Amino acid sequence: MNTTILGYPRIGARRELKFATEDYWAGRGDADALTKTGAELRAAVWTGLREAGLDAIPSNTFSFYDHMLDMSVLVDAVPERYRHLTGFDRYFAMARGVQDVPPLEMTKWFDTNYHYIVPEIGPGTRFRLADGSAAKPLAEYREAKALGIETRPVLVGPFTYLLLAKPAEDAPNGFRPLDLLDGLVDVYAEVLERLAGSGAEWVQLDEPALVADRTDEEIDALARAYARLGRLTSRPRLMVATYFGTIGADALRVLAASRVEAVGLDFVAGPGNLDVLASVGGLPRKTLVAGVVDGRNVWRTDQRRAKATCAALLGLVDRVAVGTSCSLMHVPIDLDAETPLDPDVRGRLAFARQKVGEVVALGRALREDVPPSADIPAPSAGVDPDVRARLDALGDGTRRGDRATRFAVQRDALGLPPLATTTIGSFPQTREIRRARADRRAGRITDEAYTRLMKDEIARVVALQEDLGLDVLVHGEPERNDMVQYFAEQLDGYAATEHGWVQSYGSRYVRPPILHSDVARPRPMTVEWATYAQSLTSKPVKGMLTGPVTMLAWSFVRDDQPLADTARQVALALRDEIADLEAAGIRVIQVDEPALRELLPLRDADRPAYLRWAVGAFRLATSGVADSTQIHTHMCYSEFGEIIDAIGALDADVTSVEAARSHMELVADLRAAGYENGIGPGVYDIHSPRVPAAEEMEENLRRALRAVEPARLWANPDCGLKTRAYPETEASLRNLVTAARRVRADV
Ligand code: GLN
Ligand code: ZN
Q1: For residue 328, what is the DSSP state?
Q2: What average pLDDT does this structure show over 713-729?
Q3: Of the bound ligands, which one is closest to the alpha carbon of residue 686?
Q4: CA pair distance 294, 316, nearest whole angstrom
Q5: What is the dihedral of CA 563, 568, 570, 573, to 10 degrees?
Q6: Is the minimum distance from the CB of 589 to ligand 1 under 6 angstroms?
Q7: Rounded to the nearest whole angstrom, what is the distance from the C-alpha of residue 123 to the centroid of ligand 2?
Q8: Most buried residue among 65, 110, 577, 579 by CB atoms closer than 10 A?
Q9: Structure confidence at residue 368 (pLDDT)
Q10: Is 67 a residue of the active site?
């Protein structure tokens, strides 16, 4: 093994997998058609990798939905409620649910924006190799072999698989999925033996869980698992891959002492790996797969640096293979598909296909000791002296008045009742809205016609909110395709791609914008819409912005300076936008940070520094306003326990959070953590079309009132309404206003 990658995008260059899957779901295509598309996509990837000159090619990195779900099916970790179904029906029911059968939970894959299907494991789970010799990794191995391509099947390792699982609902307290490791390892042993029987030379076991903090007990379990797999007499050679950070020294010691033949380390997200490797005395008699080509970001590799890293490693291990830092599934497929990109930006980019080329070139440079390929151009539009000077001059981002002063001033200025009602920002995105945006992009309607359509929509949404009796209104965000892309398109320093899709989950792909240079705001971005909405009503209209952390989390961000510096540049642009909104008469401004939890580092030790800059960027953006201007923030999609102090440190006047599914617990938690500003716990779950009764929301509000005084409690849904339809939205909001009024009458 000289050159390899840990995985490759499976969605197809033209999103073939999405269309085939959605056709199958909609009954437009049958199982055979979907199966055929899968086989074509796999064949295209394998042959493409071979033609690129890669010498060790992975397989089983394809998935019809998710690779963790594939593992659950492989080892028969299928909860009872799906067992009456078979084949694709069972598989997709586990992923998406069917009538009366809820799906498995879905959650984020480490600190990426990819989401996996969470295995449900209970004491009754009996692992076994479900499909015998027809099992997916075996079938794919043979399929590639039939094309004349030897591959290395990739499996999520048993340790990581169980650590990412959750206990089944009926599991007794204290049960941990990891308790079942030995039984699971038996199944892996069988898979390895069968793969060896089919001729597989190598297998890759992914253990990214080793880059997070691990207990001694977990490390013992790891040692047991790999001792057992290592001892198998008939097995392929084993490569254990870690990625997304620096491996723990204890974990690396276990792998070093085991019989596995190769270890993969991430030298992009885990620069500490070199030290750890030295501290454990290297990996004698093993191959190190050096992840020097970034699988998570879109930048070209600095080949000189990568080559130097590999050369340094040769002192610590016997053999070095060049690899990617992680699977390439996190980056778009092909830069060559992008025609309109600015050549300066393009010159700095590499997508999956280009990164394979980099791995191959580096492998050659290392073997033949030829100099690596050309240098990467520096960002020519990279440095904006104006932005930098202003940032240097800005202070620490503290509001003028303290929170008690602001509370009093805002109460008088806004005149809101206790339990003020509002929404999170977006209203349903109807077919007409989407069509108007598409028509404009395609040049089928003029800008004036487009503006007219959006303003009509805003007027409708404002009138509806007046009719519902909400207290703080929104314009409804009809002009936004996506809360990050909308701003990225208007800021300097960002570029968009046309085909740069990456899988977020299942058939949902996103096209993250590329933040390539210093960020600046050439002109106001939201003021026209917000002031138009405000002109239609005497109630306050809430301006709506996306916060700096979220602007980075859902983009590909330049890696030539610390994220913290880039966050401050985005924050400065937002600060200017907020000043313009304020000057235009907008008295309430919300800065959404749903991704604040998402970027939290995997290791405890790295968290304080992250939270410091994340909070600092938010405060830089929001602290320029008068005491009378009310700053809101909104968070969702996560457990907030680990960032509860940070939420307080943001010092927003009002924080709205997802809470409906956890029965308002967060309100008490926030207060217990010393949070004293306004709180808007989502009193109903917008992720389902269900219309909750007023009584149910009333109950939630009363529960919240046990922990917060009425003047600081807000009544709102738990997220934006853009994915909902109007009938349920109207009915739910009507009940919400009723609930708030009833409770208000009693306080
Ligand atoms: N203001 C955004 C909306 O309502 C917030 C979206 C989000 O939290 N993800 O759509
Ligand atoms: Zn939300």
Answers
A1: G
A2: 96
A3: 2
A4: 22
A5: -170
A6: no
A7: 35
A8: 577
A9: 86
A10: no
**What local confidence, expressed as pLDDT, does residue 379 receive?**
61
Burial class (CB in 10 A: 0-12, 13-18, 19+), 246: buried
Residue 3's DSSP bridge partners are: 322
Return d(Cα 58, Cα 327) in angstroms, integer.
Answer: 10
- What residue numbers does the annotated binding site for L-methionine cover? 424-426, 477, 592
User: Which residue is it, tokens 């890669």?
Assistant: 54
Instruction: Pinpoint the alpha helices (H) of 584-641.
Output: 607-622
DSSP 8-state class, residue 476? B
Tokens standing for 512? 């993250």
- Out of 330, 499, 516, 687, the active site residue is 687
Is-same-fold flag (2-368; 408-482+527-714)? Answer: yes
Identify which of 719, 724, 729, 733 to mutate to test ligand 1's pocket (most ligand atoms within 8 A of the CB): 719
How many Å separate Cα 278 from the centre of its chain?
Answer: 32
ipTM above 0.90, yes or no: yes
Whose tokens are 């004698």? That residue is: 284
Rounded Cα–Cα distance for residues 738 and 747 (Å): 15
Cβ atoms of 683 and 697 within 8 Å: the answer is: yes
**Tokens 């008068």 belong to which residue?**
626
Each residue's pLDDT tens digit, 273-331: 999 999 999 999 999 999 999 999 999 999 999 999 999 999 899 899 999 999 999 99
Give SS3 for 642.
Answer: helix
Distance in Å, CA 634 to ligand 1 centroid: 8
Q: Tell me the best of 634, 687, 721, 723 to mutate to test the pocket of ligand 1, counting ligand atoms within 8 Å of each CB and taking the most.
A: 634
Give the pTM. 0.95
Domain boundaries, the chain: 2-368, 408-482+527-714
Beta bridge partners of 156: 206
Contact 79, 104 (CB under 8 A): yes
Q: Say yes or no: CB of residue 426 within 6 Å of ligand 1.
A: yes
Beta bridge partners of 186: none
Nearest CA among 79, 69, 194, 181 for reference residue 137: 194
Give the span between the Cα atoms of 706 and 686, in whole angstroms.
24
Q: What would the pLDDT profile of 642-651 be if each residue is shown by its tens digit? A: 999 999 999 9
Terminal-residue alpha carbon distance, the chain: 71
pLDDT at 47: 98
Q: Are 36 and 91 in contact (CB under 8 A)?
A: no
Ligand 1 atom nearest residue 480's Cα: 10
Ligand 2 center to residue 658 CA distance, Å?
A: 7
Residue type, 363: G
Question: Which of 424, 485, 724 for mutating ligand 1's site (highest number of atoms within 8 Å of CB)?
Answer: 424
Does the Cβ of 594 fall within 6 Å of ligand 1? Answer: yes
pLDDT digits (tens, 9 = 90+) for 635-671: 987 778 899 999 999 999 999 998 877 788 899 999 9
| Domain at 408-482+527-714: CATH code | 3.20.20.210
Helix (H, G, I), strand (E, B) or coil at 88: helix
Q: Ligand 2 mean position to 99 CA, how many Å?
A: 26
Shortest-distance Cα residue to atom 5 of ligand 1:
720
Q: Work out which ligand 1 atom sits closest to the CA atom of 423.
A: 4
Neighbouring CB atoms inside 10 A of 711's CB total 14
What residue type is assigned to position 30 of the chain?
Answer: D
What stretches of 369-393 show up as alpha helix (H) in DSSP?
385-393
pLDDT average, residue stretch 437-453: 96
pLDDT at residue 626 in the model: 98
* DSSP assignment of 270-284: -TTHHHHHHHTT-EE
**Does the beta carbon of 634 lie inside 6 Å of ligand 1?**
yes
Confidence at 393, pLDDT banded by 50, 70, 90: confident
Q: Does domain 2-368 have CATH number 3.30.70.100?
A: no
Give the C-alpha separation, 34 to 697, whole Å.
Answer: 43
Rounded distance from Cα 442 to ligand 2 centre (Å): 30
- How far apart CA 161 and CA 140 sit, in angstroms, is 20
CB-side neighbour CA atoms (13 Å) of 562: 8
